[in-house]
Amino acid sequence: MAATRFLSHITIFNSKNSNLYSITILAILCTIFYLIGIWQHSLGPIPNSSSSPVSGFLSSSPCYSLHTAQLDFMPHHLPHDPTPATARVPHFPPCNISFSEYTPCEDARRSLKFDRDMLIYRQRHCPEKNELLKCRIPAPYGYKVPFRWPESREFAWFANVPHKELTVEKKAQNWVKVEGEKFRFPGGGTMFPRGADAYIDDIDKLINLKDGSIRTAIDTGCGVASWGAYLLSRNIIAMSFAPRDTHEAQVQFALERGVPALIGVLASIRLPYPSRAFDMAHCSRCLIPWDNYDGIYLIEVDRILRPGGYWILSGPPINWENHWKGWNRTADDLKAEQSRIETVAKSLCWKKIVQKGDIAVWQKPTNHIHCKAIRKVFKQPRFCQTQNPDMAWYTKLEKCLTPLPQVSEIKEIAGGQLPKWPQRLNAIPPRISSGSLTGVTGNNFVENTKLWKERVAYYKNIDYQLAQTGRYRNLLDMNAYLGGFAAALVDDPVWVMNAVPVEADQLNTLGVIYERGLIGTYQNWCEAMSTYPRTYDFIHADSIFSLYKDRCDMEDILLEMDRVLRPEGSVIIRDDVDVLLKIKKIIDVMQWEGRIADHEKGPHEREKILFAVKQYWTAPPLAPKHDQ
């Protein structure tokens, strides 16, 4: 025990000595460094040295006499600052006023290069890349926001479409009249001088337009689209089209009225719609030679008509017995034309169900069981063998009959039975339920419909103008997919042109959109749309710029959007945040006001939403002409 206590005392003594030694050495070192510091400061200032302690220490080293340059970390390759005047010049200046109604793919000067046979020169002929305009299309001086629907059905501002030609040419037919600074549309037409409403009532006496079985229609050679305008009150939506021809601005009038329309012509290529799209097709003195070219134009109408759909014809040669003198044609000529049309219709297996007064109606069969059986009698047109019936973008017309989907018995409707409107809108479309649309199931459709209801509700919370009833009328969805955006707006007083990009041909969904009772068109967004400037009040673009990355320039798509958007119109663009940041830089010099908002799920999503408004601006007033 005593030995243990002795060892403990020794250990404590050694520990105390060790601590004492450490403290002594530390004190000596501090004294040495203190003395060195006093000695350095006593040397006085050294030329070209910094005043910092570190530089003082370095300059006192044995190498202090070497020449050392100060490091410069500033960039030396910056561009010169622009002068204030240069910085304010827009990157895309306004175009000349002569381009106010420019339609790039239906340009009259370019069309002169092409064949006049079958009106080929009037179909789409788009500019080459080096011909694209890099300027913004101006609205005419005095342009006003169009009247709100339904007032717009009857009125439009003269300043917006400053053309009086149709008021003179069609004066007796009640197409359009000038009343002060407005146009008034009485609803008349070449074959319905009593007005479109009375004319539609006459059709309703022949086929049922009220029970919801007819929802989508197409008007070929539409004039100012009064037929389509007055069908809307019957819950029938018509796609109206006419060429840009001597009837100046007829489609432009339709769009100013708030009626769906496109520039188009039956020529040598298919109309930009899928097969089995329309419940009803209409021609009222539309000047299409139905009996020429082996009936190829009626064959195209057959392609886009739904099984059991109707074709309505009024005007020459129908009721030629009472009109041949007024039409400045011989009775024999008109009788022969009607006979040829009847023959073509029979060869397509159509049934003429009624002719009363100036109106004749044919019906397409609900399937092709009987039609295949009578091919021994009508050997032409043959059934098409290879072409995809839904392929319709610069696709050449063929003199062959588009076969309907197979059925198992004579009463079955080819492609599937459609519910009546409005149930049709949210019912699973037959193209999906049958499995013909690869990768899209009924559950996908239901989920997509729900998703777009939520998204549109979110849009309306941010864009109060979209939520304001009547603020917008003509809407464009640039990448419509299944039509969910349009379906979510069905209770608003708007219509939506649902565009399906042709680049998405692996999943061609436009047929689904028509089966829902909506309308749309195929479109390549590297090219201009077949419509006039200032067509749309609102444009929705979901992932368009990601889809067209490396296909064409972002600025060209934005300039086309600017062309078809009216002053004070709005845009919503959904895309990856990096894409939207690039878009934002471009629209900032296009006289758009925009901001980027978070995805409806929150800020952690890479996809963001850009909300933008095109500012109001027009061409300057024309300088007064002075007498020489």
Poorly predicted runs of 5 or more residues? 1-16, 41-76, 84-90
Structural class: alpha/beta
Q: What is the class of the domain at 186-406 and 413-417 in the CATH system?
A: Alpha Beta
Radius of gyration: 37 Å
Report on the architecture of this protein.
The protein is 29% helix and 16% strand. It has helices at residues 2-41, 53-59, 84-87, 108-111, 165-169, 196-204, 226-231, 250-256, 296-304, 320-323, 331-347, 369-373, 430-433, 442-462, 464-467, 484-488, 510-515, 544-547, 554-564, 577-587; strands spanning 155-157, 177-179, 182-184, 216-220, 237-242, 261-263, 278-284, 305-314, 351-356, 359-363, 382-383, 400-401, 474-477, 495-501, 520-523, 536-542, 565-576, 592-597, 607-614. The protein has a seven-stranded mixed sheet, sandwiched between helices. Strands 15-14-13-16-17-19-18 form a seven-stranded mixed sheet. It has a three-stranded antiparallel sheet with strand order 1-3-2, with no helix packed on it. The longest helix has 40 residues, at 2-41. Its EC number is 2.1.1.-. One of its GO terms (biological process) is methylation. GO terms for molecular function: methyltransferase activity.
